[in-house]
Amino acid sequence: MKGMGVMFFVMLLSLVVASLWTSIPGLRDAVHLVLNPTAGVLLNWNYTLGLLLITTLITLITTILQKYATDQDFLKTIKEEQKIVQQEMKLAKSNPTKSMELSKKSMELTMKAMPITMKPLMYTVIPFVLFLRWFQDFFTTAGNPTILGFMSWFWAYLVFSIVFSSIFRKVLKVH
Predict the structure, then answer these.
(1) Is 146 in a helix, a strand, or coil?
(2) Domain for residue 13, yes or no?
(3) Which residue range is the domain that position 167 belongs to?
(4) Are residues 71 and 116 in contact, defined by beta-carbon separation less than 8 angstroms?
(5) Does residue 43 lie within any of the structural domains?
(6) Which terminal residue of the chain, N or C, has fewer Cβ atoms less than 10 Å from its own Cβ?
(7) Residue 46 CB: number of other CB atoms within 10 A?
(8) HSE-CB for 39 with a 13 A CA cutoff
């Protein structure tokens, strides 16, 4: 559980960074200094295509980190065990005692996998929060244009990242 304590600290730190975006001297300016000439150029060229390219890159990086910073063989084993337990739970619906036992086993498997799958988050959560804050500043300054004609930047980023994450996880065989 030591790893979960570290993860909790990193998540808390990212919330502090996000909430103090304008209060921490130089933080906002430093992020803008790095991202305006790179990601900002793409977004100024075309909001939709720029956001699509940036989201693709961010999602690819996080998926690669997920693959190589976790024990994929162990996660695959846990997933296979969870599938078996789920099948057994379907068969044991009429037996509350057996159902409860299988539910407990499923929770144990989930708790085994959680620290492993959360590990890459420690490397990406703060840069991710800084990127989101920068996106907010950029699109606010640009007058909050819509992406694809009907979505705000946030919803477009969310949809794009879910789609690309699914694709990259399947192609890279990430469990």
Answers:
(1) coil
(2) no
(3) 29-70+124-175
(4) yes
(5) yes
(6) N
(7) 11
(8) 22
